[in-house]
Design goal:
This protein has 249 residues and is an alpha+beta fold. It contains 8 helices and 7 strands, in the order αααββααββααβββα. The strands form 2 sheets. It has a 5-stranded antiparallel β-sheet with strand order 4-3-7-6-5, sandwiched between helices. A hairpin with a 6-residue loop joins strand 5 and strand 6. Helix 1 crosses helix 3 and helix 2 crosses helix 3.
C-alpha cells in the first residue's frame, strides 16, 4: 500500500502548491484558466482546481464567471498593503546608509515624503571633522536641496515663494521646472551650494513597484569634496542602494 505521508507533511505540501498558484497568477498579469495554471505550476489540473476553489473563499483569488478564468483577489491587495505598513523603512535602509558613508565619507540621509514636504527620517553622520550635519525631523527645502528637488520630481509641489538662501539658489520658476524635468529623466538630483554656501547634496528616489515615491536616499557634504564628477559617481551608488531598499516593498 502506498504511503501517503504524515498529515503535517501533506499540509505543508498543500500550502506550497497554493503559493505556487498565487505566484503564477501574480507573474501572469492577466486572468488564467485552470489548465494554464496547471501547466505553469507543474501541478495536475484537478489539484489546481481544488486549490483555486479554496483560495476563492477568502478572496485571495477571484473567479471571473464570464470567462471561467482566475486572477488575484482583492484580499491579496489588502494583505500587501498591511505588510507594507508594518515594514520599518529605517531598519531596511540603515545598512545602505552605513555603506554610503563608508563609500563616500560623507553624511547619508533617509527622507520620507509627506503631503507637502519631505522630512529626514534617519541619517548616518560622516566621520570627517568637517562635515554636513543632518537632523531627524527636519524638512528639506523643496527648491534648494537635492532631496527636495527629487521630491518635486515625483509629485511634490513647489513652494509658492522660491526663497533665496545663497547666490546659487534657484529662484526662477522656469529654471526650476527645467531642472526638475532633468532629475525626473536621469533619476537623480543635485544641489550645489543652494541651501548653504558650502554644501553639496546628491539624492535619488526610492520607488515602489507602482513607481510611487516611498523615500529618498541622499549624500551631502562640503563642496570642496563633492565636485561634479564625484557627485555623479555617488549618484550611481545611491541608485543601487535605492533599488535594494525598494525591493522590500
Amino acid at each position: 500500500m502506498a504511503r501517503t505521508g504524515r498529515p503535517a507533511d501533506r499540509q505543508v505540501e498543500s500550502v506550497q502548491k497554493a503559493i505556487a498558484v498565487l505566484d503564477v497568477l501574480a507573474a501572469a498579469g492577466e486572468e488564467l484558466g485552470t489548465n494554464e495554471i496547471a501547466r505553469r505550476t507543474g501541478i495536475n489540473a484537478s489539484t489546481v482546481s481544488r486549490l483555486l476553489a479554496t483560495l476563492v473563499v477568502p478572496g485571495l483569488v477571484q473567479h471571473h464567471q464570464a470567462s471561467g478564468r482566475y486572477g488575484l483577489g482583492i484580499r491579496i491587495l489588502q494583505l500587501a498593503g498591511a505588510a507594507r505598513e508594518t515594514l520599518d523603512i529605517r531598519r531596511i535602509a540603515r545598512p545602505s546608509l552605513e555603506d554610503l558613508v563608508a563609500v563616500s565619507g560623507e553624511t547619508a540621509t533617509l527622507s520620507v515624503p509627506g503631503e507637502h514636504d519631505v522630512m529626514t527620517l534617519d541619517f548616518v553622520q560622516s566621520p570627517q571633522s568637517v562635515r554636513s550635519v543632518a537632523e531627524i525631523g527636519r524638512n528639506s527645502v523643496r527648491h534648494a536641496t537635492a532631496v527636495g528637488k527629487v521630491f518635486l520630481a515625483h509629485g511634490g509641489r513647489a513652494p509658492d515663494e522660491l526663497t533665496r538662501f545663497t547666490e546659487h539658489t534657484i529662484t526662477d520658476r522656469g529654471v526650476l521646472e527645467r531642472e526638475i524635468a532633468t532629475i525626473r529623466e536621469r533619476g537623480w538630483g543635485v544641489s550645489r551650494a543652494e541651501r548653504e554656501p558650502d554644501l553639496v547634496g546628491v539624492a535619488v528616489p526610492v520607488l515602489d513597484r507602482d513607481g510611487d515615491l516611498i523615500a529618498i536616499l541622499g549624500v551631502q557634504g562640503p563642496r570642496g569634496r563633492l565636485d561634479e564628477q564625484r557627485a555623479e559617481v555617488l549618484a550611481g551608488t545611491l541608485r543601487e542602494h535605492a533599488r535594494t531598499v525598494a525591493s522590500a516593498f
